[in-house]
Amino acid sequence: MSEPFSVRVTVRGYETDAQGHVNQAVYVNYAEHARWSLLSAAGVTQARLIGRGVGPVALETTIRYRRELLAGDEIDITCAFEWGGGKTFRMSQEIRRTDGTVAAEVTAVAGLLDLEVRRLVADPGAVFEELAAEPALFGL
Asked: Which helix (H) or strand (E) holds 51?
């Protein structure tokens, strides 16, 4: 199995809290940044999604905090899509320092919303495969 998609970020000082470590809400932003970076790398832009009449929606996000992150830390944020059946899919992500230390694990359940009828599309993988120049990044 190949390595999951990854994007590198440097922790910025304004993302830290009074204890000097990354504020818990920022981890959600890091995960979202990696997801949109994967979509972009696969050739799926917001304009393409809207043009197709769909938009990604988060249904559930779980974060497990493992180690603190401090301003200046360089981190890699991974993103791997997991396909089952039905209208939803999972994304597994790790936020880790460049030395390999896992700072957080993020799992999410998501779907693609049909923007006209405001319901989840029946086969989100097929839509991603249709829109993507690099569907392999989605594990398709």
From this structure: helix 46-52
**CB-based contacts of 88, cutoff 8 Å, min separation 6:** 59, 109, 110, 111, 120, 124
- Taking 3-state DSSP, the helix, strand and coil percentages for the chain, each rounded to the nearest 5, stand at 25, 40, 30
Task: Return the DSSP state at 136.
Answer: G
- The pTM of the full predicted model, rounded to 2 decimals, is 0.94
> Would you state the pLDDT for residue 3?
82
User: Angle CA(56)–CA(62)–CA(66) in degrees, nearest 5?
Assistant: 130
Render pLDDT for 103-117 as a digit per residue (tens, 0 to 9): 999 999 999 999 999
Helix (H, G, I), strand (E, B) or coil at 81: strand
